[in-house]
């Protein structure tokens, strides 16, 4: 943590030099995503990608639909996981160079046979909460960094997973 102590004053100075931005009506994003699953203290990671569409109702509130797919090997078995969620997103558009946001989404998670040791593919309830920041390249394009907590339940056991993603954001229209 001490290695990153310089980051707080740097971000503060960066924020002081920024100005407000326009609000896009729609945002389309797609890119790389990583899922780190925690099952009773046992961790494994899956790699994948996904996409999202966001409709901004005003400068700070919108709705986001997001789908992510992950694939990898867990305990010698090739597995895949797909999440599909929808929920509100809250953006803070006071800076020209970046836009921080927070989101809470609800939907489903589908695990293939072998995921967490399940004997057949299954759909379960999934909840995602977290946030990130869009680094604005121009009015129509941004790079998004995001980290989320993913809650799911297979076998009656709660899985506390983390997802990390980097994507390209295309902005359409104006509010």
Can you offer a commentary on this structure?
- This protein has 175 residues and is mostly beta strands.
- It has a single domain (19-39, 48-172), classed as Porin (Beta Barrel), CATH 2.40.160.20.
- 6% of the residues lie in helices and 67% in strands.
- It has one helix and eight strands; from the N terminus they run αββββββββ.
- The chain has an eight-stranded antiparallel beta barrel.
- A hairpin with a 4-residue loop joins β2 and β3.
- It is elongated, with a radius of gyration of 18 Å.
- It starts with 6 loop residues before the first helix and ends with a strand.
CATH topology-level name: Porin
Number of helices, where a helix is a run of at least 4 consecutive DSSP H or I residues: 1
Helicity range: under 10%
The rounded distance between the terminal residues' Cα atoms is: 39 Å
User: What is the overall shape?
Assistant: elongated
Task: Walk across the major sheet and give the strand order.
Answer: 1-2-3-4-5-6-7-8
Total separate domains = 1
CATH architectural grouping: Beta Barrel
What fraction of the residues are assigned to beta strands by DSSP? over 45%
Q: For this structure, what is the CATH class? A: Mainly Beta
Global Rg: 18 Å
Arithmetic mean of pLDDT: 87
Overall SS class: mainly beta
| Uncertain regions spanning at least 5 consecutive residues | 15-19
- Please outline the major beta sheet: 8 strands, antiparallel, barrel
Q: What are the secondary-structure elements, in order, as H or E?
A: HEEEEEEEE
Number of strands: 8
């Amino acid at each position: 943590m001490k290695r990153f102590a310089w980051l707080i004053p740097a971000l503060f100075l960066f924020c002081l030099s920024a100005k407000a931005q326009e609000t896009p009506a729609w945002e389309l994003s797609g890119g790389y995503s990583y899922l780190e699953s925690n099952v009773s203290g046992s961790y494994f990671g899956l790699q994948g990608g996904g996409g999202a569409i966001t409709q901004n109702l005003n400068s700070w509130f919108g709705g986001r639909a997001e789908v992510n797919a992950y694939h990898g090997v867990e305990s010698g078995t090739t597995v895949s996981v797909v999440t599909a969620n929808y929920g509100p997103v809250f953006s803070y558009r006071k800076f020209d160079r970046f836009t921080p946001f927070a989101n809470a989404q609800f939907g489903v998670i589908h695990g293939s046979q072998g995921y967490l040791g399940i004997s057949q593919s299954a759909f379960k309830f999934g909840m995602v909460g977290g946030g990130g920041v869009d680094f604005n390249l121009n009015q129509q394009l941004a790079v998004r960094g995001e980290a989320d907590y993913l809650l799911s339940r297979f076998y009656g056991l709660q899985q506390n997973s983390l997802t990390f993603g980097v994507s390209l954001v295309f902005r359409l229209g104006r509010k």
